[in-house]
Structures are given as C-alpha cells and as structure tokens.
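Handoff note, outgoing to incoming analyst
You'll be picking up this chain. Sequence as last confirmed:
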Amino acid sequence: MEETTLRRDADRSRQTILDVAERLFAELGYEAVSMERIGRAAGLSRGAPGYFFGSKVALYRAVLQRMFEATEQMVAETDRQLATLADGDLDAAVEVVVENLLEFLYERPTFLTLVQREALRRSGVMEGTRAHLTLLRTALSIADRLDWTSAATNPQQLLLTLLSVCWFPLANPPLIRDLGGHFDRTFVEARKRHVVALLRAGLASNGRQQPLPPRGGGGYGGRAAGS
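Most recent structure output, in case you need it:
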C-alpha cells in the first residue's frame, strides 16, 4: 500500500511539473525559465524537476512530446470518425476535419504558442521526434485514404492549406481584436463554418477543372503544334 501511494505521489508530481513547465515555457520562452522556477511554481522543491527529468532540455522535450501525443489522439479520433462516412463524401469529411482541428487548437493555446516559439528558436527539438513524425504521417494517410487527390492534386498542399487557415487566426488573438472581433467561442464557431465553406468551394472548383493538354500537343479540340 505504501509503495502504491509513493508511486501515485510521484506520478502526480511529475504531471504537475509538466503542466507548470508547459505554461511557463509558453508564457516566457525556453531560455527565460529555470528548473528552479518550475519547481517553485509547481509547489515542489527546486530540485524536483531535475530529479524527475534530469535536465531542462529533457523536460522541454517531454512537454513537447506530451503535446504531440495529445495531437496524435485527436488525429486518430478524426480518422475513426472519417471511417464511418460514406465513400467519397468529401463535404462531410471536410466538416469533421475542420471541427476537430479548430476545437483542438482553441482548447490548447499553449500548444500554439510553444510550437511557434520552437519554430522561431529553430533548435530542432521537435524535428524527428516520434510523435511529430507520426502526426504528419497519420494526417497525410487520412488525405490519401479519402482520395482527396481526386479533387486536389497534391495532398501535402491541401494539408498545409488546412493547417494555415485554421492555425493562423487562433495563434494571433491580438489580430482578431484589432479587426474588431472577439477571440471567444463565438469566433471559433464562425471560423469553423468559414473554413468548411472555403475548402468545399476549393475542392469543388478543382473537381470541375479539366486537365491541361499535354505539353506540345493539342487540346480541347485544338490542333497539335506544327500541324
């Protein structure tokens, strides 16, 4: 019983350190936060973060890893929901993907801040991590399984567009306020509707486009070059 209690207390302390570290790294940046500060803010000893994680960089990687694992869960749940849709139902698929992505980003502001800070630091901490690579592979597999390539020739470009139109506004609340809006639940719901309509229109437009004629040949009833 005593061993179980100690293990439970250790797990609770570890999670508290991760929670506090995530908040402080997002608010102040990696360089401005010390292990001692994290320990004090967590209500533990100054040496507790080092005891559980060894070093600040190891703690930072653990924070990022935990965030990407949460992202993986969101992607997996999205994949599960998409599997229940009728084949070729791109309208419903777009709605599911946008709903889940924007909801995830809105509920996790520290994720947005930390990923942006890390991109600016260019430390390479995120690159090559298992969760980061798995997230990208899974997201691309969703695009491939839905055969979005039939409506958009490049699933990577479609994924980048989706991330951009969902990510940028939620990562920049001051811009929303400068434009006279309010960064709240009402804004997020309106954003969902806008992005869904935008992507549906884009996919429908691409689907209606006819392929270009082969280089050097005729097309659409025209004569071949040189004929």
